[in-house]
Amino acid sequence: MGCTIDKEIIEKTIAFHGHTCPGLAIGIRLSELAIQRLQIDKAQKPVCVAETDMCALDAIQFLTGCSYGKGNLVHKDYGKSGFTFFDREAEKGFRALFLDNFRSNDPGREILGKLMGKVTAGTATPEEEEQCQTLRKEAITRIMNADLDELFSVKEVSTPPVRPARILESIQCETCGEMTMESRIRRYGGQYLCIPCFMAMEQKI
């Protein structure tokens, strides 16, 4: 069964992101999965841990209520298409992994990848740009029309994937003078430094 999220809400999600693309479509379907399994959009204490920084995160922010600003959308730079959703109040959650065989079974995947490279580099012809747009639309349609179990493998999670966000003390960097969260302060040569000043001092980093 295809996506069950209202079309008007999908259009608002696209407007929030700025354009439509396969990555955003994945995020819409992920959010749909989290809403179905956890009612994450109504949860009092939701959290999402994303193992990538792809376009899907904008859909997750818009549709689930998990956001960077609230500290309940956490990015772990693992380079994987894995997303863990958890309801701290209900003490239940799951990790969803986008299935590579769905991606690899897309007949236009290889061509689209090459065309996207050309478009990004500014070397694509008008015909190649048009073909790229057509293939992107086909990839989006394929994602939006698929069953959720065709798109993701899901494993239950019984413990929170991250600790709740905390408000920490700020310490003044002794080089630039800017206030810095204490968990990001580094000590070097007897001084307390922010990360950029520390990196400027310690060239090995």
The largest sheet, given as strand count, sense and whether it forms a barrel, is: 5 strands, mixed
Give the tally of β-strands. Answer: 9
Low-confidence stretches: none
How big a fraction of the residues is strand? 15-25%
SSE run: HHEHEEEHHHHEEEEEH
**Strand order within the widest beta sheet:** 2-1-3-4-5
Strand-pairing-aware structural class: alpha+beta
The coarse silhouette is globular
End-to-end Cα distance, whole Å, is: 50 Å
Q: How many domain regions?
A: 2
Average of pLDDT: 90
Q: What radius of gyration results from the CA coordinates?
A: 21 Å
Which CATH top level class of the largest domain fits? Alpha Beta
If classified by CATH, what would the architecture of the largest domain be? 2-Layer Sandwich
